[in-house]
Design goal:
By secondary structure, this protein is an alpha/beta fold. It has a single domain, classed as Alpha-Beta Barrel (TIM Barrel). The chain is 42% helix and 18% strand. Strand 3, helix 7 and strand 4 form a beta-alpha-beta unit. The model has no long low-confidence stretch (mean pLDDT 95).
Length: 297
């Protein structure tokens, strides 16, 4: 389904969830996924703002809805309820032509040989999360903010086992001028080499330093990857000003940056930390202005 759509149009992803909820009162250190149960109206408010701004793909509030992360907050017994509520809230905000994906993030524990978590156990945790999401009728999965290809491959295997489609997205840090790697030291070119033969809907990057950095990462991806690309950059690097967290890039920056990403053949564009519906509206405007754009597949 998603792969077919990407052959004929650019998809506008949604924006941030966590930083939006923080502005709505989510306490520091509190799991955003718990608000699916206690503050469903606020989750719906965020989803709805993106749909109204022009998103044609939104994702569930399930980034950390896996057994390992939820155990930290003694919520592992509510995993099914949390995922069910996340799906229901999101579904109720959809309009015609808007797709729903499930957000899946890293487990938050290092996998052997870098940590104590075995690949087999990690696979089981991802499989549980994917199966619960699939029970809600979700077929598109966004693996986001991954920093280790081996962990992403385990999550991808769970999705392939379920018959779903996956967008696989990594977060990179600048290590020098125009040199980016994940936390585990993998460059965009190395990520491409690992995933170029995998059956995925799109390869991408999210979070990080902002849209200016994402443009360079997109350029490096495109040098060796011919498939669809997905990007959800932060609104720049956050700074604390008079006790308030401020992001340095504006919707206007995203409008200009989107046009550059389109030139590089990006097929899915949205926002990550610090973005809101204004950024999504700016992305939509840029896509409409580049009316002659055709995805480079």
């Amino acid at each position: 389904m998603l792969s077919g759509i990407l052959k004929r149009e650019v998809i506008i992803f949604d924006g941030a969830m966590g930083t939006r909820l923080q502005k709505l009162g989510l306490p520091a250190g509190h799991p955003p996924e718990e608000w699916n149960l206690s503050h469903p109206e606020e989750i719906a408010r965020v989803h709805r703002s993106y749909v109204e701004a022009g998103s044609t793909l939104i994702q569930t509030n399930t980034f950390g809805a896996n057994r390992i992360r939820l155990e930290r907050y003694h919520l592992e017994g509510k995993i099914k309820e949390i995922i069910h509520q996340a799906a229901e809230i999101a579904k109720n905000t959809l309009k015609e032509g808007v797709l729903l994906a499930a957000s899946i993030g890293p487990l938050g524990e290092f996998i052997e040989p870098y940590g104590d978590l075995s690949p087999e156990e990690a696979q089981k945790v991802f499989q549980e999360q994917v199966e619960l999401l699939q029970e809600e009728g979700i077929k598109i999965f966004h693996l986001e903010t991954f920093s280790f290809s081996s962990e992403a491959l385990l999550a991808l295997e769970a999705i392939k086992n379920s018959g779903g489609e996956a967008i696989v997205s990594f977060t990179f840090e600048e290590r020098g001028e125009e040199h980016f790697t994940t936390l585990m030291g993998e460059s965009p070119h190395q990520i491409v080499e690992i995933f170029k033969d995998e059956s995925i809907a799109a390869l991408g990057a999210n979070c990080g330093g902002g849209i200016k950095e994402i443009i360079e990462i997109a350029r490096q991806y495109r040098e060796s990857y011919l498939g669809p690309l997905s990007f959800k950059p932060n609104a720049g690097i956050p700074q604390v000003v008079e006790g308030e967290v401020i992001y340095t890039e504006t919707p206007e920056d995203f409008e200009r940056g989107t046009k550059q990403l389109l030139q590089l053949g990006a097929s899915i564009i949205g926002g990550c930390c610090g973005t809101d519906e204004k950024y999504i509206a700016a992305i939509k405007k840029a896509i409409q202005e580049v009316s002659a754009f055709k995805p480079q597949l």
